[in-house]
């Protein structure tokens, strides 16, 4: 028996890996006629390291998130996805994706890239995709 995915969540950060995951999520959303939720997490922890530049960094991160989400949403719509939503959160992507966003949108599948922009963090604490796999209660597809 094949599972029917009703809501597919795809986190994007603008990296090549997340854009490949977006492409796969679009394919799956078309196949299953699923709702597609495109999410971006602004990693606010980086602001604490640069107090003097906090405001410009926050503004840049906000503008960047809006652009990433708008571009991803347009790509999904251009591909024929009619039920698409975007979502922006702040926090650590390692915990926010699986513990907050996925339950909030009632995702039954998360499609994400194997690597993103968190390469330095991955060396010390593990990747966002690894953490999502450990903490998620729904199916996950990792796109290479």
Description:
By secondary structure, the protein is an alpha/beta fold. It has one domain (7-142): Rossmann fold (3-Layer(aba) Sandwich). 49% of the residues lie in helices and 21% in strands. It has five helices and five strands, in the order E-H-E-H-E-H-E-H-H-E. The chain has helices at 16-32, 54-78, 93-105, 119-125, 128-135, and strands at 7-11, 35-42, 84-90, 109-113, 139-143. The protein has a five-stranded parallel sheet with strand order 3-2-1-4-5, with helices on both faces. Strand 2, helix 2 and strand 3 (84-90) form a beta-alpha-beta unit. It is globular. Residues 120-125 have low confidence and may be disordered.
Q: Helical proportion?
A: 40-55%
Topology pattern, helix = H, strand = E: EHEHEHEHHE
Main beta-sheet annotation? 5 strands, parallel
- In whole angstroms, the N-to-C terminal distance is 26 Å
> Count the helices. How many?
5
Quickly name the level 1 CATH class. Answer: Alpha Beta
| Overall pLDDT level | 86
Strand content: 15-25%
Radius of gyration: 15 Å
The multimeric state of the shown protein is single chain
* Low-confidence parts: 120-125
What topology, given as strand order, has the largest sheet? 3-2-1-4-5
In CATH terms, what is the architecture? 3-Layer(aba) Sandwich
Globally, the shape reads globular
> What would CATH call the homologous superfamily?
HUPs
InterPro entries: Rossmann-like_a/b/a_fold, Universal_stress_UspA, UspA
Organism: Ignatzschineria cameli
Family: Belongs to the universal stress protein A family.
Main location: cytoplasm
